[in-house]
Every structure is written in C-alpha cells, then in structure tokens.
Amino acid sequence: MGAGNRSIFAKNIAPSAVKMNFGPSFIERLAVSLLFGTPREMTAEEICGKGGVVDQFVEAAQQSFEAGFKGVELHAA
C-alpha cells in the first residue's frame, strides 16, 4: 500500500491540467494515458489556502528542522 489515502484510480493532481508527453509514438501515448492520464488542475485554495500544499511544505520543513536536519531540498521536476 502506498502513502496517503487516495485510491490508485484517483486522478493525479497538478498545478495545471497538462498531460505528460513522452513522445509521439502510439506506445508512448498509450503509456501516458494508462499510467498517468490528464491530471486534475489544483485550485488556488488547494495550493495556497489554509492547509494547502504551501502549508504542507512549511510543516514538513519545520518537522525536518526539529528532527535535526539543517536544510531541505525541493525537487521540482
């Protein structure tokens, strides 16, 4: 089982509803459709509202600091 409480069939969420592009071939397009689909665009409230993603990153950084880490790295691929 993975982390979190979302179903494996739940739509991925992203800052915008732009589908991934692995390339033009049928196999590449099929892989994207089956594995990822088109994400659901996050709302402004989900991103920067109370308890949103920004708040979650702040909380994670605070917990890391309290655990003794001196920094965190954000991967924005």
Based on CA atoms alone, the radius of gyration comes out at 16 Å
Which structural category fits the helices and strands? mainly alpha
* Strand order within the widest beta sheet: 1-2
How would you characterize the largest beta sheet? 2 strands, parallel
Overall mean confidence score, pLDDT: 86
Topology order in helix (H) and strand (E) letters: EHEHH
> Total helix count?
3
Strand content bin: 5-15%
Low-confidence stretches: none
Q: How many strands?
A: 2
State the shape.
elongated
Q: Percent range for helical residues? A: 25-40%
Number of domains: 2
Distance between the termini: 24 Å
Brief summary of the model shown:
The chain is mainly alpha-helical and 77 residues long.
Question: How would you describe what is shown here?
Answer:
It contains three helices and two strands; from the N terminus they run βαβαα. It has helices at 26-35, 44-48, 53-66, and strands spanning 13-14, 40-41. The protein folds into two domains: 7-42, no CATH class; 44-77, no CATH class. The longest helix has 14 residues, at 53-66. It is 38% helix and 5% strand. It is elongated. Helix 1 (26-35) links the parallel strand 1 and strand 2 (40-41). It has a two-stranded parallel ribbon. The chain has 77 residues and is mainly α. The mean pLDDT is 86.
